[in-house]
Amino acid sequence: MLILLVIGCVYAFVLNAQQNDFKFSEKNTWFETILAIKKSEKPGERPALEKKNHPDPYRVALWNFLRKNFNSEKDMLEMSWEERDNIWNFEDKGFSYQQLGRNYLAAFQTSCKERGVPADYRQHTFNNPEDIQKIRRQYITSRNKEYVILTPPVSDTPRINIPLLLGVRPNHPVLFKVPVTGRKPVGIKLLQVPKGCHYDEASGSLVGVVAQKGDYKFTIIAENALGKDSVTVILRVGDTISLTPPMGWSSWSCFGSDVTEKDIRQAADFIVKTGLINYGWSYINIDDCWMNRPSLNDPVFSIKDSLTTKFEAKEDLRKRLSRMRFNESELIGKVRDSAGNILSNKDFPDMKRLTDYIHSIGLKAGIYTSPGHVTCQNYIGSYGHELQDAIQFAKWGFDYLKYDWCGYSLLAADRSVANLKTPYQLMNNALKQVQRDIVYSICEYGWGDVWKWGAQVGGNLWRTTSDIRDTWASISEIGFSMHGKEAYAGPGRWNDPDQLVVGYVGWSKSPRPTYLSPNEQYTQMSLWALLSAPLFIGADLTRLDSFTVKLLSNAEVIAINQDTLGYQGSRMLAKEPVQVWKKKLSDGSFAIGIFNTGDDPVLYDLYFKEIGLQGNWSVRDVWRQKDIKTSGSLLKQRINRHGVLLLKLTPGQKII
Ligand code: GLA
To answer: Closest Cα to residue 66, out of 45, 52, 80?
Structure first.
């Protein structure tokens, strides 16, 4: 045992290290240091920086170390290099610490190069505290200038923000909040309400049940002392639900595996407090980790069916499973009752009480599970209990299910489309048997071009890629790679490029500000609107600042996303570094996004005919909610670094 002081970076460590093949020197970088900490652990021992309740304390130790030393709450040093380090997928590749270190370093160097940061940046960063401060200042100062709120103050006169097309299945409960802005009190009246429904004052929602399939047109009027608004809405009673992209909040990007019932209640409360509820945000979704973890002796691992047999022919399930797991015995609990009903864990004492609360304010509730034995975080999945779980979710009152492949890798022989479809079809059959509309969210990271068959297995939405992170590399790659998938989206079937990583995120108990710059956040929100993407806020809603609230409450931007045609926008032009995307809207207009993917601002001339729009057009800046003066067929604008100009073009010239 050797006591060693490592000063290769700006922080010093006292290590109880067994050296093995690791050499410490002043040149050690921080990641080598952490890897050495890991290497020095006795098997099963937990490192000091561990986060409670995480299946891989070592990764968490490394992660926490980075966060602590290179990002304080107020700092937003760009760290997109974290994303390429393979840390989060490392177990699949076997444990070579040196390789992990090399990956990390290579990713960081690439990132420096892309940003035009001097090659010796790394040395400066890790050897000199002042240099860190300098670099922080450089990034933070330049970002602070971008904090411009574009959404204008909300008008005092009423505006109804409900989607104009609502879908429900016959004989299933109707629950649609009527979101309205304007100075309170605002009186709400519904005319020609579909038979079987009424307006519930307490929750501010249309509620009831309709037995007959068909389109039911009704009118909503909102009125206060200053004026009134009215809209005509169609309630479509039929087989398809989620006729506009689902909008809401999910626990994953903020709280990760530390989520509790309190976080979920607070999310619901803050959707109301921040006023987001008035713009159509409605689902409050619990992601992974609301259940217990099974022990290796759990009966789920003894299920014998064609899938397990097929797998066991390949490799012993228990062995493979135990390799996936870490020392977590204290986290194991009773996963099902004696009748096989799934149980929530101690942090979710009463699911029904929770969904009742969510519904009482006109919001909807979402839940998560996996088709495998276990979820991504090794909590119990639905394998062998699919119907029973669907029934339980309906009984508890959930309106949305994210079904996340993850643990099912232990069961699927390969990733052929047939194998990918199997578990999703099975759960779809189960969901069809419950008397409740449950939006079905398929999560298998885009494998097997899921957009081509997700709707066939009943999916209302499907993730198109692996997990999003709050970096430019991640959002631009995921967002812009939606090009070419537009034919597969439409009412009731949406491509899902994952959550909005804005505000405070962090996948842990201690969310921190997003690493996305303000421009990048405008880009994500605008692109997701043009793509008709499901909108799920990944932020801790209890800590929204005014920038983020305004980013998420621009009624004209949201209306583009919620347009009833449900078209997914397409890329019309790509002239490095600019991309122009276009989405046709139901009122005959077009939403256009001009994106600057480059690191410097650009002056860009857009000739409308280049994107298939002949003649003259009136142009509105959607974020600023202001008409723009143009020649009618051309627009000259400056677009920020990683920024966007979101426009609405209406036929006919209107020079202002
Ligand atoms: C996967 C999913 C994420 C999240 C986690 C939870 O990684 O893609 O969206 O649900 O699992 O463990």
So the answer is: 80
CA angle 464, 465, 469 (to 5 degrees): 130
Distance CA 143, CA 519 (A): 9
Determine whether the shortest distance from the Cβ of 82 to ligand 1 is under 6 A: no
Q: How far apart are CA 249 and CA 288, in angstroms?
A: 14
| CA separation for the pair 348, 575 (Å, rounded) | 50
CA–CA dist 457, 543 (Å, integer)? 38
- What residues are paired with 6 via a beta bridge? 13
Please, are residues 393 and 343 in contact by the beta-carbon 8 Å criterion? no
- Which tens digits make up the pLDDT trace of 452-474? 999 999 999 999 999 998 888 88
Rounded distance between C-alpha atoms, residue 252 and residue 625, angstroms: 32
Strand ranges (DSSP E) for 350-463?
364-369, 400-404, 439-443, 461-463
Q: Give me 318's structure tokens.
A: 């228990």
User: Residue 470: phi, psi to the nearest 5?
Assistant: -90, 60
Q: Give the chain's radius of gyration (CA, Å).
A: 26
* Nearest in space to 382 (alpha carbons), one of 339, 324, 322, 342: 342
What pairing do the DSSP bridges indicate for beta strands 247-250 and 13-17? unpaired
CB atoms under 10 Å from CB of 582, counted, come to: 21
Give the span between the Cα atoms of 196 and 211, in whole angstroms. 8
Spacing of C-alpha 520 from chain mean position: 15
Residue 603's pLDDT is what? 95
Ligand 1 pocket mutation pick from 89, 258, 287, 462 by most atoms within 8 angstroms of CB:
287
Q: What is the mean pLDDT of residues 484-511?
A: 94
User: Residue 5's beta-bridge partner residues?
Assistant: 14
* pTM summary value: 0.83
**CB 547, CB 522: distance < 8 Å:** no
Q: Cβ contacts of residue 379 below 8 Å, gap of 6+?
A: 288, 289, 290, 291, 292, 293, 345
Distance 443 CA to ligand 1 centre (A): 8
| Ligand 1 midpoint to CA 251 (Å) | 10
Contacts of 389 (CB under 8 A, 6+ apart): 342, 369, 382, 430
> Is residue 563 classed exposed, middle or buried when 0-12, 13-18 and 19+ CB atoms within 10 A define those classes?
buried
pLDDT digits (tens, 9 = 90+) for 240-269: 999 999 999 999 999 988 899 999 999 999
Taking residues 312-328, report their average pLDDT: 56
